[in-house]
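Q: Protein A?
A:
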Amino acid sequence: MKMYTRTGDAGETSIIGGRVLKDDPRIEAYGTIDELNSFVSQGLCLAQDAGFTELAKQLLQIQHELFDCGSDLAYAKPKEDQVKVHAGMVEQLEQWVDLFEEENPPIERFILPGGSHLAASLHVCRTVCRRAERLTVTLSRTVDINHEVTRYLNRLSDYFFVAARTANVRAGVPDVEYERSGKVFR
């Protein structure tokens, strides 16, 4: 099998049930999810290197779920029995967030992205995830989508934020508070 098909040479690509231009909002949304998945891979490698086995397992699961998100957005006309992203996936993220939060010190001020290498990587995941979420919301204004994808991405960015803080705690690296922040969290 050849890796190139030449079918996209004129600026179009296939989706499930049709073809669209490569700069279509649908392609922007699931293309950004694919970009996020690559950054999650980097975080996974750093988690493995740091010996954070459970976090690495979670990140691998998230990689599969991000493929599910992209798949759901690739349908020209999604049907309920075709979509993969469901409320249970959001609930799982919430459980992980709650467990990580138990390890983290209270937060009162905004923090800067960074700290340990792993935390910095997870903050990149968070910001790319937020962009994917924004693009998915934009897409949902013009076409039918599985709205669980938007919920999943929203919760996933929370997961990355809390996981980054936990990575710093486990590495013994404090979060860096934004110097000009007042107390915004109670």
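Q: Protein B?
A:
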Amino acid sequence: MARLREDGGVSVVTSKSIVDAISLVEIFGLEYLWVDALCIIQDDDEDRKTQIANMDVVFTCAVLTIVSAAGSDANGGLPGIFPGSRPIT
């Protein structure tokens, strides 16, 4: 995650799901990660409209699509990324 702090990177990420996604991308040896919540200016209607109109390009060029479906918010994480993060039943 050190590269996130380079120019143009993110200085603080508090969402467990985003931190887990960053870790997964690093595990796979990939270089880039698109996170809607970070890459689309959420309180700018024009930016949201522009970005959403181009999501087909984002998904077409994606090597991998990660969907965080655990939990009820952005802190649900990606169960199984780290040891002990998924209960074994």
